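Bug report

Summary: structure tokens for ANTAR domain-containing protein differ between web form and batch submission.
Environment: batch mode, default settings.
Steps: 1) Submit the sequence below via batch. 2) Compare with the web form result.

Sequence submitted:
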Amino acid sequence: MVSDGVVRERALDTYEAGPGSEKRYNAQMRMISLAAGILVGLRCRRWEDEIVELIEVAQGCRMSPYELAKALVDLASGAQVTSEAYRLHPALRIVRRQWGYLLNASPGRTSVAGKRHA
């Protein structure tokens, strides 16, 4: 599925909530928790520390934690991101700047040159 220049895996669609503020809130909290879990796995830090950092980065960039978390999950899942998507979605640029070194260093990731990291 392609949306706004980001190729999304079907599994990520399950986090999209339908109408209704409670469902939307729950979906957003799941996405934030998932993003924090990704950071925990990459850095082996406490979940609470990663949640705090995610929220602080979002606030520092005047962005919702959900928007930042969604971008982190997209990039960590290996979604193909076009240059147009980076231009349209500041959250993708912020995630790349803030945590890109972690995402690129994780086992099995492919670098820009197409070579696999050890």
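Above is the batch result. After comparison, the two runs are identical; trailing whitespace caused the diff. The beta strands are 2-3, 6-7. Residues 2-105 form one domain.
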